[in-house]
Predict the 3D structure of the following.
Amino acid sequence: MLPKIPVGRGLEAAVNFLVEHVSWLTRAFSALMESGLSAVEGALLALPAWLFIVLTALLTLFLTRRRGTAVLTLLGLGLILNMGLWKATVSTIALVLVSTLSAVSFGIPLGIGAAMSAPVRRTVMPVLDVMQTMPAFVYLIPAIPFFGLGKVAAVFSTVIFAMPPSIRLTCLGIRQVPPDLKECAEAFGSTRWQRLVKLELPLAAPTILAGVNQTVMLALSMVVIAAMIGAKGLGGEVWKAIQRLQMGAGFEAGIGIVIVAMILDRVLQHCGARTKNPKNT
């Protein structure tokens, strides 16, 4: 009988080595991320709830040009306020915003690099396969020794979980630009950078925005799981209701997550449609 390959033991040793030798970096990152999260959440909570709801509905109307979506935003956020989940919702929105911005900041450049370089693409794509098939709960395990319990660990695990769609769809969008357009740009003397900025990225924008949309949705889905390590927010309310077997409270928090997800999804979808068909806006 073949001896067991110590895969788990090796991974555990690698994580322990990193925790021991890179703790100064993770502490600095944790302090920076914690201050950023507190600033975003404090700024959102500084506005009265009714004013925040009205401004969000007006912003939704401006971005989508659809009254139905604006009314959905107004009624949905009003229902969240009525259920007494406003502070938890704002905490969730702040967590999703910071996680999404971090994931997109890493994901889009990696997607561009994968589209422009075959060696980078051959390296990145198998890693993305692993990231997308790994159970979400597994990402919580390394987050705890690096960052401890709390929102920073939740952001770290959420970024890792939500990043792959932005990388894949950025790469896909750029690679789907018709070759004849690229040849035309080269014939007019465009450099590689000019071709990327003025041709490929604008044409790939709808696909890239679809990747951002998927990143936001995955970040929201991870919020509930990350509540297990102290993320709080609406996910924390769901987790608390599970622990106490409070069915009504759990459904209320779940409805709040659904409302936030629907608003963000509608806005991002319409922004992507406007990017694809600017004449229709």
User: Anything to note?
Assistant: The mean pLDDT is 85.
